[in-house]
Amino acid sequence: MTFNTIKPSDIFICKKCGDCCKGFGGTYVTAKDIEKIATYINTDPKKFVSDYCVKSGSKLVLAQGADGYCIFWDDLCTIHPVKPRMCKAWPFIESVLTNITNWHIMADSCPGIRTDVPDNLIQECVRSVRKQDSSEN
Q: What residue ranges in 1-137 does DSSP mark as E strands?
């Protein structure tokens, strides 16, 4: 297989395993995320925060169950249509642009991430996805 330019699906295909929904310090939620999720589950944003979020430093994160998974994980993401921005971005995140080693570290726990692609092309793809995402938000 020869790579000239690559698409996100060339380096990542979600296997819906939920490994990214477990641990790793929690899932940060923005005010926009809170509003969208609260509407989706038919609750008030303040009640959503008190019932489904915890503080991590100065930020809110989705609570985790006793099993370590996000409380919205039940063999699949139960809020998938309105999942937080952090989840939508995975694994096309800023830290990959800072240090490509982060992509390889994430691949150790994510079966959907490919590492048999040249690092410069992975970074080019991540940069392109991030640029597109920032123009949409």
A: 53-56, 59-62
CA atoms within 13 A on the CB side of 130: 16
Encoded tokens for 68: 């370590």
| Global pTM value | 0.82
Taking only the tens place, the pLDDT of each residue in 88-131 is 999 999 899 999 999 999 999 899 999 999 999 999 999 999 88
Name the token pair of 80.
Answer: 């998938």
Handedness of CA 65, 73, 17, 23 (dihedral sign): negative
Residue 125 has which token pair?
Answer: 């793809």
User: How far is the C-alpha of 125 from the C-alpha of 119, rounded, in Å?
Assistant: 10
